[in-house]
Amino acid sequence: MARMKFICDTERCIECNGCVTACKNENEVPWGITRRRVVTVNDGIIGQEKSISVACMHCSDAPCMAVCPVDCFYRTDEGVVLHDKDICIGCGYCSFACPFGAPQFLSTGAFGVRSKMDKCTFCSGGPEANGSVAEFEKYGRNRLAEGKLPLCAEMCSTKALIGGDSEVISAIYAKRVSVRESNGRYPSTDIFGWSTAYGPTGSPAPTPTPAAKIPGAKS
Questions:
Q1: How far apart (Å, rounded) are the C-alpha atoms in residues 119 and 219?
Q2: Residue 37 in contact with residue 49, Cβ under 8 Å?
Q3: For the whole model, what pTM was predicted?
Q4: Domain limits for position 73
Q5: Which residues contact 46 (CB under 8 A, 6 or more apart)?
Q6: pLDDT at 183
Q7: 66: helix, coil or strand?
Q8: Which residue from 38, 43, 46, 169 has the least number of CB within 10 angstroms?
Q9: Residue 129 vs residues 75, 185, 219: alpha-carbon distances, Å
Q10: Structural domain contains residue 212
Q11: What is the pLDDT of residues 118-157, one digit of tens each?
Q12: CATH number of domain containing 113
């Protein structure tokens, strides 16, 4: 069985947010919920700007599953991490555990009561019957059951975001990396833009500013 994954190529992403719009439209995601978003570092700095499309990465050892007190999460045969909204109690533990900020909550009422959690489903619906009205209303379109891939990846104009069988998309990305290395674009140690986000490999860690020098800090 294929294991489904996303890969976003930071060398191709142009921050158009087409993937964000495609996800919202295809799954009729309510306002206030963003299953996918584009993050940019060094915004506006010519030659240093990098963007990446982020959503649930459907982890092999998902921390959201580990912390959920009611075990509403489950993993499909394709490796997609989904959840049952009928079981979810809206506690928010998963939002604190997820390193990608995938779990989303709508705050309702005067006291900001959390709703049921919502996140990227890899366009594979939920526990209800495939293609049913109940499934669409709770989780969105089940494109995988229709033999299709997530619309966010299909609509990416530069093919920066690719999704599908992990072996297939890894091979596609590896070929891109090989071509760029042969053209001297970047060394193999920086294929995911590590130095862009954290500085060159081996650079010293930043020195924290003493509290006494921070304006307004108490001595």
A1: 43
A2: no
A3: 0.78
A4: 4-177
A5: none
A6: 77
A7: helix
A8: 46
A9: 16, 47, 61
A10: no
A11: 999 999 999 999 989 999 999 999 999 999 999 999 999 9
A12: 3.30.70.20
